Amino acid sequence: MRTIRFLLEKEFRQIFRNKTLVAMIMVVPVVQLLILPLAANYEVKNINISIVNHDNSDYARHLITRITASGYFRLTSLNTTFDEALAHIESDEADLILKIPRNFEKNLVRENKQKLFVAVNAINGVKANLGGAYLATIIRDFNQDLMLEWFQPSRTSQQPVIAVTPTNWYNPYLNYRLFMVPGILAILVTMIGGYLSALNIVKEKEVGTIEQINVTPIRKHHFIVGKLIPFWVLGMVVFTLGLLVGWLAYGITPEGNLGLLYGFLALYLLAVLGLGLLISTYTDTQQQAMFIAFFFMMIFILMSGLFTSIDSMPSWAKVISRLNPVSYFIDVMRMVVLKGSGLADIIPHMGAVFVFAIVFNTWAIVNYRKTS
Questions:
Q1: Helix H segments across 151-219?
Q2: Mean pLDDT throughout 296-310?
Q3: What is the spatial distance between Cα 292 and Cα 279, in angstroms, rounded to a whole number?
Q4: 150 assigned to some structural domain
Q5: Is residue 82 part of a domain?
Q6: pLDDT class for 38, splitting at 50, 70, 90?
Q7: Which keywords does this Swiss-Prot/TrEMBL entry list (predicted)?
Q8: Are the C-beta atoms of residues 72 and 44 closer than 8 Å to each other?
């Protein structure tokens, strides 16, 4: 313990001697947590639509009003020819084209049916799918209103009617920030811990102080533990700052036990820092460590379930996501913060992260060599 105490004193002095690094550790996550949830939004709005209206009837104008009043679409052109509307798509001024044919209202009244033409710019697949779905929903609602207007059901009608009343649990108002902030905080803690620990031993190698440490009787596991604990403490501090920002800026408070959240975080940081130290034992320069850490972080982030649901991934990607410690942390963050889950609910996640922590740190200790 005396040896570890001296190592910790050395590490903390090195960290706090670098004022710029301390400022970046404390300020950068706070700024990112203030900005990213405002931009990372699953909703797609301001979809540019060009409408080719060949009818100019009351029904056509009512449909156009429904589309523009929905809040999702922005009308870029109206009453143009289809070629002009297509030119708007080719110049990226429009995302969709809605063509209302001639005799739109007349055919609806006489023949009880009419077709509309919709063209979608599918370069941005997400925007195209959601924009087309929004437009289809508006047209379907418009059609239902017409049916109710023409065929009002009798008050004594005995026809069965199914009514659906949705209830949104854990996020009643579907506020995407409640869903994104816990996940983004998990990513920030992971990046801070992973990058700093990956660069730590490598910095000792580049400066040359590693040689002085290697000639001392310090054991390998003492050395790794002395490198791990300071960044474990910093990870806790960054997480606490993130919770404060979530509360002050977005009004998000954990529904579950705060101690349970910190308990899982303590175990998770051991796994992430162990991975960073493992990378550091394999590399000789900070540039190498940064590239390898960046490689793993990109995979961890994109396959963590933060932006894309793991359930929608192919089978091989689901297997890889189960080997991704970040996915477990994001799940636990959302479970405890939004649902108020208890210890029994997150035990499988804790077991998986515990295995990661044991494997990474043991591997780092075994791989670290005191002789070059």
A1: 176-207, 209-214
A2: 86
A3: 7
A4: no
A5: yes
A6: confident
A7: Cell membrane, Membrane, Transmembrane, Transmembrane helix, Transport
A8: yes
Cα–Cα dist 236/273, whole Å: 12
* Domain match, 186 and 235 both: yes
Q: Who wins on pLDDT, 156 or 201?
A: 201
Long-range contacts: 125-131, Cβ < 8 Å, 24+?
126/44, 127/44, 127/47, 127/95, 128/95, 130/44, 130/47, 131/44, 131/47, 131/49, 131/72, 131/73, 131/95, 131/96
- Whether 235 maps to a domain, the answer reads yes
What domain range includes position 82?
A: 47-144
Q: What is the pLDDT of residue 189?
A: 92
- Higher-confidence residue: 318 or 109? 318
| Rounded Cα–Cα distance for residues 37 and 180 (Å) | 6
On whether residue 166 sits in a domain, the answer given is: no
Count of domains forming the chain: 2
* Tokens standing for residue 141: 């609602």
344 CB neighbour count, 10 Å cutoff: 7
Please indicate, yes or no, whether the overall pTM of this predicted structure exceeds 0.90: no
The pLDDT mean for the chain works out to: 85
d(CA 141, CA 214): 73
- Alpha carbon distance 141, 139 (integer Å): 5
| Residue-level pLDDT at 335 | 92
Residues 122 and 27 in one domain: no
Same domain, 93 and 235: no
Closest by CA position to 233, among listed 279, 197, 277: 197
75 strand-pairing partners: 49
Contact at 8 Å (CB) between 255 and 337? Answer: yes
Residue 349 confidence (pLDDT): 95
25 and 113 share a domain?
no
Parallel, antiparallel, or unpaired for β 117-120 and 73-78?
unpaired
Last residue of a domain, one of 102, 122, 144: 144
In a shared domain, residues 274 and 315: yes
Q: How many CB atoms lie within 10 A of CB 133?
A: 11
